[in-house]
Design goal:
With 285 residues, the chain is α/β, with parallel strands linked by helices. The chain is 28% helix and 26% strand. α1 runs parallel beside α6.
């Protein structure tokens, strides 16, 4: 197999990035490229450093944006940069370099839901399906040509962390399917078509502005709770709400059958359309 790329650089963190790193390591025997990994955002449960140590892949931790940008700008070889679960915005000067090609994984079906925390927003907006996109990186955020997309359903009780895990699996599948065509430069990328009302979702934005409005329909309240639920990852601060004229913080929630209802301080129950109850545990602020 032939490719003009002399080097592949993987940037990212997390389980999916680890799988992609292992795959690119195996495939370098087919293409003969050099491989290295850069960790821009350290992850407490990261597996990439261990993978690099076990396989002899050069590893670098570069949390500083300027340092990372400067390092990438020094690359002279024809290089494919694989941005997997990576939030570093590549400078326009780097994207426009003739010797650099960058592909990025986005956890939504572009051109919809560009920017950050897409799994949260698709749940909050009540979407029934979502998916992943591998696309070429251009100067505009999440605007490059689409290489491959894969979709999945959003279950009625699916939480943000559960959807994120499903999307990571799809990201790996999509990468395996398009990697050869990207390396051989014959990927049939299609341009994105943007609607006039397309918006970018920013890292500081929280669904519902972080406030649980109990006057909203119960199903929307449930969607908001699920949309910000990343388990112990702490992507978002705890939701707040007002109950009995008092500001309160949501501690946890569960969907239960009515037979399991138990009264107690700091408990709120809301009826859901399917006949179950939404149990919310809170504490006054």
């Amino acid at each position: 197999m032939r490719t003009d790329f002399e080097k592949v650089v993987v940037i990212g963190y997390g389980k999916a990035t680890g799988e992609i790193l292992k795959y690119t390591d195996v495939r370098r025997t087919d293409y003969g490229y050099e491989l290295e990994f850069i960790e821009h955002e350290p992850h407490a449960l990261g597996v990439t450093r261990q993978i690099c140590e076990e396989r002899g892949i050069p590893f670098a931790s570069m949390p500083d944006k300027r340092a990372l940008g400067a390092y990438l700008a020094e690359i002279q070889e024809k290089t494919l940069i694989v941005s997997a679960s990576n939030n570093f915005l590549f400078p326009a000067a780097l994207v426009e370099r003739e010797n650099i090609t960058i592909i990025n994984f986005h956890n939504a079906l572009l051109p919809e839901y560009p920017g950050r925390n897409a799994p949260s927003w698709v749940i909050y907006r009540g979407e029934e399906r979502t998916g992943i996109t591998w696309h070429y990186v251009t100067a505009g955020v999440d605007e490059g040509g689409i290489i491959i997309q894969k979709s999945c359903e959003i279950g009625p009780d699916m939480k943000a962390y559960e959807l994120t895990e499903a999307l990571m699996d799809l990201a790996c599948e999509g990468f395996y399917e398009c990697f050869d065509s990207v390396l051989q430069k014959n990927a049939a990328a299609r341009p994105q078509r943007f609607s006039p009302d397309r918006r970018m979702y920013r890292s500081f934005e929280i669904p519902g502005d972080g406030f649980l409005d109990l006057s909203e329909p119960e199903e929307k309240v449930y969607r908001l709770l699920r949309s910000v639920d990343y388990g112990k990852s702490g992507i978002f601060p705890p939701l707040q709400m007002e109950i009995g004229g008092v500001r309160a913080e949501v501690l946890r929630y569960r969907k239960i059958v009515p037979e399991k209802r138990q009264e107690g301080a700091g408990l709120l129950y809301l009826p859901l359309p399917d006949g179950d109850l939404l149990k919310i545990k809170y504490r006054p602020l």
